[in-house]
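Subject: sequence -> structure tokens, single chain

Hey, anyone have a minute? Need the predicted structure for the following. Not urgent.
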Amino acid sequence: MERVYIGLGSNLATPLAQLRSALASLAALPHSNLIARSSFYASDPLGPADQPRYVNAVAALDTALSPLALLDRLQTIELEQGRTRKAERWGPRTLDLDILLFGNQKVDIARLTVPHYHMHARAFVLYPLAEIVPELHLPDGRTLSELLSACPFEGLQRLAEAAPE
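Reply:
Had a minute. Here:
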């Protein structure tokens, strides 16, 4: 089993409900156990500014699935929740599930890059991740606290009503 961290995001079709449904789907994945999840955070969108704010979270999962098998499962969950893949990057979406870290593995293939290629600069990833694993060390040796010190808590709002159960 590998400890995997997954970023969740939604800004369409009732985002809080989208994330709750996605977490239930993650908990039901075969050969996997949902270990923890962060609070939900509202965040400003990347890319086009004329879209709703996102709701984001991070989940910790122990899984025996391979990185590509997990990616396939996550993309199936996205599709089941109405995700439509478009050419436009960072546009509005019902659900986005990203593999942030897969144990200490480094994966760099056409379909998947792990650690996630831009997580180090995304407050909506780092702050929720810090809630569930504050002492994290990345595969390259950097610590989560180092990344947090270079990434201000700007554009984020912790949603108190959506705190973990």
